[in-house]
Amino acid sequence: MTLQHVNGERLWGSLMEMARIGETPGGGSRRLALTAEDGRARDLFCGWAREAGCAVTVDRIGNIFARRKGSDAHAPPVVFGSHLDTVPTGGKFDGPLGVLAGLEVMRRLQEQDIRTRAPLELVNWTNEEGSRFSPMTMGSSVFVGDVALDFALSRQDPAGITVSDALAKLYPHTELAPVGGRKFAAYLEIHVEQGPLLKEGGEAIGIVAGSYKALYFVATVRGEAAHVGPTLMEQRRDAMAGAAALTLEVERIGRARGRDGRSNAPHVEVFPNVRGVIPAEVRLSCDVRHADPTESRAMADELRDACGRIARERGLEIALEQYFEFGPIECDAAMASLVRDQASALGLACRDLLTVASHDAVPMMRHCPSALFFIPSETGISHNEAEYSTPEQCRHGADVLLNAVLQLAR
Amino acid sequence: MTLQHVNGERLWGSLMEMARIGETPGGGSRRLALTAEDGRARDLFCGWAREAGCAVTVDRIGNIFARRKGSDAHAPPVVFGSHLDTVPTGGKFDGPLGVLAGLEVMRRLQEQDIRTRAPLELVNWTNEEGSRFSPMTMGSSVFVGDVALDFALSRQDPAGITVSDALAKLYPHTELAPVGGRKFAAYLEIHVEQGPLLKEGGEAIGIVAGSYKALYFVATVRGEAAHVGPTLMEQRRDAMAGAAALTLEVERIGRARGRDGRSNAPHVEVFPNVRGVIPAEVRLSCDVRHADPTESRAMADELRDACGRIARERGLEIALEQYFEFGPIECDAAMASLVRDQASALGLACRDLLTVASHDAVPMMRHCPSALFFIPSETGISHNEAEYSTPEQCRHGADVLLNAVLQLAR
Questions:
Q1: Taking the mean position of all CA atoms in its chain, how far away is CA B11?
Q2: pTM score, whole prediction
Q3: What is the pLDDT of residues B234-268, one digit of tens each?
Q4: CA angle A183, A189, A190 (to 5 degrees)
Q5: What is the ipTM of this complex?
Q6: Which end of chain A, N or C, is surrounded by fewer C-beta atoms within 10 Å?
């Protein structure tokens, strides 16, 4: 089969147009899941997908599927996509690249009038980021049955709005389809790398061979509310100071592992969080990650020990509860080969790497043969307004996606 | 003049009835300033004050004055009171004791048909705690002209509601009086001690001779938002970890001063505060306090040094801004003597002490001869549901207030 190429300018134009929805002063995008901004992004995407000849459906968790018929109506679809939601400090690429590269595949096939055997479906998964509603990769996790639909719909944002409420506001008149219950022939996702490895190595494509093992916790630190003034320093059981000590321990645990370890304490809730009262309770979200699962578990053990030590030293109670884990995954070797072969045929340098973060492709890996691949990040930074890949890097990624889709669906 | 005594049972009954407004599961009260709960407390208080023969007015910052006529209508009033608002984790005594002991004075004079020469005024100051709106001691500070009325009215709570909006909701049909502009003959405030000193020493009354010097800051820690997963530990500029290091430095600075020093970092705002993003910015409120003002300034210098060191070590920016200071005050010696004499005449053991926290009496000290005195705290803790003084301790305090008022206003 001859190699196909996308229209790189059109892809770039769509990325820039999408980025204007929820545009931030620093050149990024803020489109939290199922907000009005996400709604506008969804509408723009659906309009584009219909123009590209696709039939659009939305399921009960808000996942959007844009389907292009194949010559064999009974064949399971080849599916590709990513997410349009962002973190509050989001860039232009994390998520939208995967959706809009997929859109470019649909547009290219339409204008070249190429009909595949298998149907194709381009998907926008709901709430990949988990910034507004927890857990993350919500839409894809519900689709594959890892998370129950009712549980997901009941999740609340910090203002108490549920996923169900937010969906009803975005889709008051749309009949939503059942979630899941059908098999894909294959799933492909292209994403921007969120670290510096491809940029450092000079490769155009990073093929995800597996993942880190990540363990996610909430540490609830309980002390005693008291007046900030008269209460003697020796009398205090200050939950904030305990949480600060724990935050530094979390950081130390990751740093001690060099380039293969990560650890975070990025989210905190303080009660009562007023200037006149020594904090009674702090809930600190934290995680530990390592390429080697044995090391991840050792990091979690160190975290548990640190909680016990800080609690004893400070007269606090600290309860450490694991709420999520991810990996290690091993990606489908045949799917990885197929992507690698297309990149090579296109003359693009590749390397294998591990993903540290989860993506919608991760739940999909238990559902059907799946591949996840990255393009370089020029700035090596993501979840930041400065996130950047060049038009050429985006085009190369979309070229690989287009040819991989054709291989799978021809 | 013969010594007078309050009705201790009635005082206790009123304290317990007031505490049921905004009652918390742990036996405390939650009545943030100008909320619906504060409104109900105000209504209960105004009804009681009218029954006790007082005329009630509310001023434009929401301070409530319950006035009892004197035989000389032109004499400046003798004023006493405190506040009915609480912190989110408030107890039954911090604030209400001063207001309801004052109410008991009014009730006792009414039933004994005692007419004073000077008019008496019982005051409930607005937003002493500063938990909902900053700054604290708002009503009394506006009254004496330390804080501009328009500035105070424009202050917002975390939901963006202004003091002005909140007042309009509580008083839609009340014509509010001008704030301040008149002199008091004297001001008296009784308050529960918020530390362990009277309990340790066995005294019934603590006479405040002066205050600590307290300096209040906001430290704004700026790092860089980035993905919690792929971003290498060595790449990070994590504002949360920097704020954690600063929180521990704040604690160390206070602890190093033994029983005479205090330091706090009780309030934090994190941006973006989501699980997927390394925090870009943290705003940490902190303060340092010492009985010796030279030491307070040395503590502030250490805090500033710590900010610089942490910023350098971690590649962060940290801006430390002082937003408030308090003390040292020296209390009016003649007023302190008058209170001490009444306590002695009543057979109550006294000691002098310094206040670590501010109270409404502090702004009043620049306005008129003022006295602030404490009763013991059984638990030595305040701003906590476990705050507790016995009925007898409350009665002793109110007896001192009653006789001091009569001395000043006879």
A1: 21
A2: 0.90
A3: 999 999 999 999 999 999 999 999 999 999 999 99
A4: 170
A5: 0.90
A6: N
